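Help needed: design a sequence for this.
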């Protein structure tokens, strides 16, 4: 049964891609719990297309993320939040910035607030929250706010098509990139090239996925494996969903696109170093295999191909 509640609800989720994907289940739970309410998402520009393609929100607001000394920007954000008529806010970002937004309602009236802001009505006050996987942490936060049943993230309602890439099966998605400022999370281009060649030898087309800022990296892999299709900078988030639905499998570093690919149901092998902890942030989906080494430089290609074989890719 749908619980009675406020007529207007705000959900805050600003970034990053992996965190946004892992909030899909909470989005669905909030939408279901507040079926009669107008539910608005406050997010940033990169995630508008994906959020709009789902059935979770009635409206989407873009947060300009004003700088500390941008007084005009802060006043504009304050006016918008206070004018939204929100009876309940779910802060799924739970950062210092999003908690500060709670203060923008001062001196009131202040909506009910689920998050970690000091003085909010529905605090997620588990002192071990930072040691929980993102999905379990968000589910517990919503439980503190009265939403007990949080489903797994589901992209099945997203309409997306990959026909323009002209791919025929079988193909595998290969994601060699990741945050440039965290090189320890990246397996080498040389190793990804050897993996791409291994796939090509088995008549599985390697399809390289990454942003335009990763063009040199993907180009190095494609240069060493001419059979690979280099899609650097050519895929939107919806394109990645569509490609994942048709792929035999996906292999990549712990990076945002791998969260999206795994959630779309593609069998995924994700590579982890000690720079990130899968217990806290591992990709979730129906078929995810984690391959971990303290340093990815010590991860042999054979260990990854063995993981692919274990996931059903023909060796």
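Sure. Designed sequence:
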């Amino acid at each position: 049964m749908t619980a009675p509640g406020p007529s207007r609800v705000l959900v805050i989720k600003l970034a990053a891609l992996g965190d946004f994907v892992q909030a899909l289940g909470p989005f669905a739970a909030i939408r279901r719990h507040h079926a009669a309410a107008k539910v608005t998402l406050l997010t940033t520009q990169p995630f508008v297309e994906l959020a709009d393609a789902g059935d979770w929100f009635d409206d989407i607001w873009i947060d300009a993320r004003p700088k500390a000394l941008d007084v005009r920007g802060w006043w504009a954000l304050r006016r918008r939040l206070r004018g939204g008529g929100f009876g309940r806010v779910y802060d799924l970002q739970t950062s210092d910035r999003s908690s500060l937004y709670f203060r923008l309602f001062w001196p009131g009236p202040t909506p009910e607030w689920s998050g970690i802001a000091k003085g909010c009505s529905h605090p997620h006050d588990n002192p071990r929250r930072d040691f929980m996987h993102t999905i379990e942490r968000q589910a517990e936060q919503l439980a503190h706010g009265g939403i007990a049943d949080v489903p797994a993230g589901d992209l099945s309602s997203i309409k997306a098509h990959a026909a323009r890439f002209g791919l025929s099966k079988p193909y595998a998605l290969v994601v060699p990139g990741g945050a440039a400022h965290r090189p320890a999370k990246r397996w080498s281009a040389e190793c990804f090239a050897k993996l791409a060649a291994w796939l090509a030898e088995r008549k599985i087309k390697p399809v390289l996925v990454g942003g335009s800022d990763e063009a040199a990296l993907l180009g190095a892999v494609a240069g060493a494996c001419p059979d690979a299709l280099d899609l650097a900078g050519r895929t939107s988030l919806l394109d990645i969903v569509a490609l994942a639905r048709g792929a035999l499998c996906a292999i990549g570093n712990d990076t945002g696109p791998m969260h999206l690919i795994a959630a779309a149901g593609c069998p995924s092998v994700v590579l982890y170093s000690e720079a990130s902890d899968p217990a806290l942030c591992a990709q979730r989906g129906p078929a995810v295999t984690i391959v971990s080494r303290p340093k990815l430089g010590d991860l042999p290609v054979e260990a990854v191909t063995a993981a692919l074989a274990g996931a059903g890719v023909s060796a």
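The radius of gyration is 21 Å.
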